Amino acid sequence: MYIVMASAECAPVAKAGGLGDFVHGLARELILGGHRVEVLLPKYDGLRLDRIEGLEKAYTDLWVPFYDQGFPCDLHHGRVDGIDCWFIDPHSPQEFFKRGVIHGEPDDPDRFTFYARAVLEFLYKSGRHPDIIHCNDWHTGLIPVLLFETYQALGLNRTRVCYTLHNLGHQGWVGEYVLHQAGLDAQRLMTPDRLADPGNPHVINLMKGGIVYANYVTTVSPRYAWEIQTTEQGMGLQETLRLHDHKFGGILNGIDFESWNPLTDTHIHHPYGPGSLPDKAHNKTALRQRLGLAQDNKPLIAVVSRLDAQKGVELIRHAILHGLDRGAQAVLLGSAQEPVLDAYFRVLKRETDAHPDCHLELAYDEDLAHQIYAAADIMVIPSVYEPCGLTQMIAMRYGVVPVARRVGGLADTVFDANHSDKPFEERNGYVFDDLTPEALESALDRALGLWFDYPEYFRQLRLNGMAMDNSWARPARHYLDIFEYIRA
Ligand code: ADP
Fold first, then answer.
1. Does the Cβ of 360 fall within 6 Å of ligand 1?
2. Contact 324/352 with Cβ under 8 angstroms?
């Protein structure tokens, strides 16, 4: 099959979060299965060029319409871990992709409207006829709309679209003007059954457009699929999703079992695996040394997270302070985009800086993230909502016991050591339901109690987590089934 993936991110060259890992992991698995995959990305100025092989300008003078005019683009081609990637480089006065960031700019609607149009214009002008365009999140919501409203009539009529929702917290609520930018008929599209936002008929909802027009819609875990259809987690799209239920399903993401493998991970100090679990302790010693923590017989609680309201920031803070009270050590690696949240954690860092058992690193640091997974005993993930979550899967792969809130993909992957309908060998962590300090404490205290009093049983929980198959093999097969099903 010939699959084009459209996304704002692809790890490791353009990654802001789990979306980047998703595209990279799924693309690699599809290629392993013998399929032809091309990933189309904006050519951001912050691309990790050192991770792109053979980057060269390979297609020039692509004219991409925008409003009544347009901009010329060059396309650069290169390979990222064996994945064919195309990078779209517009020569526009707005310098859409030269902002030092992937997203979060005030004119994101314009930037990604342009990107969506450029993707289709490139496929059309270069004579490509993919079987599937796999679109992701609101940035690409206009692609199925443009395909079926505009490009199908121009000859792109064999291509079908699968659209994956990674986070309904960002739906692309934009003004009608973007439809004019994209050359679409605003009057026809601003209707309740098409792109009008369910909460405000004067606003365009790009994610809704993607849902309505795609041939199939997925989200990143079965539990999140249920939550967004039936609870306020749908953030206004519940009814749209129920209406399109016949073409909607949840598929749990995988993680890249090659880059996240404690036996071969080059970022960490000492390799280890299920058969050599005691060696994990060397990594704990090394991390303590690196971060200036005391070398004591204490459990290490970790948080590796974007510091966003979605991640349960108050409970993250509470877990650190409560863990320290209970005689544990705590490490946080996180970065906040919101200035208030950044300030919130800077205050906590000042409060805990002198503590010999606590270190907060307010940064994005891939290398340190690996070392924390390798060193930690317990990973705290108290998300308000969590479409899938990779952190708990990576943690388990590294023998870290997750303490997680039972929402979204966390509910599909973390099974409580004491209260679960799973057999013992599938239990791998501790879960709690309520978004309260007491609920978090009840789970965290059980994990700490086990570490202190029943180390043998704690070791078994680690091994249960390490034995879970959260690789991309199964989800990729599931995506292929969907692609086959919708293929023309
Ligand atoms: P989200 O996509 O909502 O950020 P996920 O759990 O799906 O959350 O994915 C988070 C990914 O980003 C994981 O690979 C995690 O290790 C990584 N990550 C998060 N914060 C940081 C950070 N500050 N430094 C390095 N890696 C981080």
1. no
2. yes
**Cα 84 to ligand 1 centroid, rounded to whole Å:** 24
What is the whole-number distance in angstroms between the Cα of residue 67 and the centre of ligand 1? 36
SS3 354: coil
Q: For ligand 1, say whether the CB of 334 is within 6 Å of any of its atoms.
A: yes
Q: What is the pLDDT of residues 164-190, one digit of tens each?
A: 999 999 999 999 999 999 999 999 999
- Residue 362 burial (CB count, 10 A): 16
Q: Does residue 170's CB lie within 6 angstroms of at least one atom of ligand 1?
A: no
d(CA 125, CA 260) in angstroms, rounded, equals: 39
Cβ–ligand 1 contact at 130 (below 6 Å): no
State pLDDT tens for residues 283-342. Answer: 999 999 999 999 999 999 999 999 999 999 999 999 999 999 999 999 999 999 899 999
Q: How far apart are CA 290 and CA 344, in angstroms?
A: 24
Residue with CA closest to ligand 1 atom 12: 17
Alpha helices in 365-472 (DSSP H): 366-375, 391-397, 408-413, 437-453, 455-466
| Beta strands at 200-205 and 196-197: parallel, antiparallel or unpaired | antiparallel
